[in-house]
Design goal:
- Keywords: Chromatin regulator, Hydrolase, Metal-binding, Repressor, Zinc.
- Its cofactor is Zn(2+).
- Belongs to the histone deacetylase family.
- The protein contains 11 helices and 12 strands.
- Strands 4-1-7-12-11-8-9-10 form an 8-stranded parallel β-sheet, sandwiched between helices.
- Helix 8 packs parallel to helix 9.
- It is globular, with a radius of gyration of 19 Å.
Length: 381
């Protein structure tokens, strides 16, 4: 079905890598993400990083309007040797021992429960499969539909619901493959992609760009601020571009940030591969963020990023799933983003069921200009 539809419109499919085993990561119930029962609430909510959010993402891609343009691929778990390309042996051993011991809370909100380690290995392996598919020339655009997420996981530390840095492992695979000398990572999760940034903080072969709400550090597991002055170190100085956006930044603000900061940086860096880590928690209705992207904003970002890949990377684009915790709207925003990637004029956009927010982009535009002025003399490229 996918190949027939794609041939009619002369468009390559989006290659989605997925395995149901990732649903076996159980995060429990409690007060938001604490896992705690205070004793005075009749109804406890599911942890925000639960399997329902991913089930809806899978189903909308299988039955939604763009389903004919999706090619589904199986995946396999990552091997320990592959994990060591990004993570330290000591940290991997800590996770293995925690799994053997029946589970452990690794940091606030981040629970490794029975089944979690196998799901994490599948998420990492799925992302590596998605990257390898593109590196081997079997497709141009791959999407790793994974959980648990990964972009907060540092080489030696779990953080923010993340155990293994799926995108970081894929970037390292691209660099080691001989196909790519330089890789750009664009992170649009509402939270700073601190783990990915730390992994390549001293490298001039990886440009890490993170657009996130200006949330700062949230404790020992996340010491990074995501501020404009975290630029990298050594050879990597100037290759970590943080774009902390004010709360309430919406579609216009994000597009302005892409036009003023992201696009010029990618053009000057000249990557051989773009990795887009997609967080759907930047949406206007997400419980874990305070930004105001709608489906239309995600749709525009999808088109911008794919255009950049076609201009600079021969179309090579690997998309890796991160956050997004509104069980319904995250799936809709994912669909919209991939609509933008496909950019099919003959395909009417999926209507937005709930978004209406009168955006005022005056403040966000001023912040973006200030970031631009600060960084213009500090980026070596």
């Amino acid at each position: 079905m996918a190949s027939e539809a794609c041939s009619k419109v002369r468009v390559n499919p989006i290659n989605v890598f997925w395995d149901e085993g990732m649903l076996n990561h159980e995060t429990g119930i409690g007060v938001f993400d604490t896992g705690e029962d205070p004793g005075f609430l009749d109804v406890l909510e599911k942890h925000p990083e639960n399997s329902d959010r991913i089930r809806n993402m899978v189903s909308i891609l299988k039955r939604g309007p763009i389903s004919p343009y999706i090619a589904w691929h199986p995946a396999s778990p990552a091997l320990t040797s592959q994990l060591l390309s990004f993570h330290t042996p000591e940290y991997i051993n800590e996770l293995v021992e925690a799994d053997k011991g029946g589970g452990k809370m690794l940091c606030v909100g981040t629970f490794l429960n029975p089944g979690s380690w196998d799901a994490a290995l599948l998420a990492a392996g799925t992302t590596l499969c998605a990257m390898k598919h593109v590196l081997d020339g079997h497709g141009k655009v791959s999407y790793a539909l994974v959980r648990p997420p990964g972009h907060h996981a540092q080489p030696s530390q779990a953080d923010g619901y993340c155990f293994l840095n799926n995108a970081g492992l894929a970037v390292q695979l691209a660099l080691d493959s001989g196909v790519c000398n330089k890789v750009a990572v664009i992170d649009i999760d509402v939270h700073y992609g601190n783990g990915t940034a730390e992994g390549f903080y001293r490298s001039n072969k990886v440009l890490t760009i993170s657009l996130h709400m200006n949330h700062g550090s949230w404790g020992p597991s996340h010491p990074h601020n995501g501020s404009v002055d975290e630029l990298g170190e050594g050879e990597g100085y100037g290759y970590n571009l943080n774009i902390p956006l004010p709360n309430g930044t919406g579609d216009n603000g994000y597009v302005y940030a892409f036009n003023e900061l992201v696009i010029p940086s990618i053009q000057k860096f000249g990557p051989d591969m773009i990795v887009l880590t997609i967080g759907l928690d930047s949406s206007a209705f997400d419980p874990n963020g305070r930004q105001c992207l709608t489906m239309e904003g995600y749709r525009k970002i999808g088109k911008i990023v794919h255009d950049l890949a076609k201009q600079h990377c021969d179309g090579r684009l690997v998309i890796v799933q991160e956050g997004g915790y509104h069980v319904t709207y995250s799936a809709y925003c994912l669909h919209a983003f991939l609509e933008g990637v496909l950019n099919l004029p003959s395909l009417p956009p999926l209507p937005d069921p709930i978004a209406y927010y009168p955006e005022d982009d005056t403040f966000s535009s001023k912040v973006i200009e200030a970031i631009k002025n600060y960084q213009k003399d500090k980026l070596p490229f």
